[in-house]
Amino acid sequence: MQPRKLSLDELNRLSVDAFKESEKFPYCLILDDIRSLNNVGSVFRTADAFRASKLFLCGITGQPPHRDITKTALGATESVDWEYVSDVTSLVNQLQSEGWIVAAIEQAEGSTSLSDFKPEPNKSYAFVLGNEVTGVCDAVIQQADLVVEIPQFGTKHSLNISVTAGIVCWDFLQKR
């Protein structure tokens, strides 16, 4: 039998209302100073696909509604719980005081390779993704409970922020 693509009806996806009521996985994403609105929209889709508990938009990161975010989010701005917080360091402090483990996704001295990252059972994680050029700010790297680095084997020194979000979310869910 030849494989065929499934139709949208056959995918049995949740409605927006059912998604909002569904149990989310114990992690959130923090986007700090993301310049590209297309990247923001793409991360909304990733947060929807991997049922993140929340998406925080910080600093200069664009917010819905915006045409470029909407174009790549494909409706995920309606399903994913999100909040704008101007100061990322205040947000990190707040989440840590609530018991979240904050992980900066960055190439840094003393970082943990994603392949070695082992989420603690029954803990909630906040993954911080930084600016497309400058990365996660130094203040957050110092504040974070850990820094996780995605191994790379080519000539480029970084991945697109939306690709990074997808890798981190998938990895976290596979290891839970």
From TrEMBL:
SUPFAM superfamilies in the record: alpha/beta knot
GO MF terms, alphabetically ordered: RNA binding; RNA methyltransferase activity
GO BP term (any one): methylation
Residue ranges of every copy of the tRNA/rRNA methyltransferase SpoU type domain listed in the record: 28-170
Keyword Protein transport: no
GO CC annotation: cytosol
Domain of life: Bacteria
Protein name as it appears in the record: RNA methyltransferase
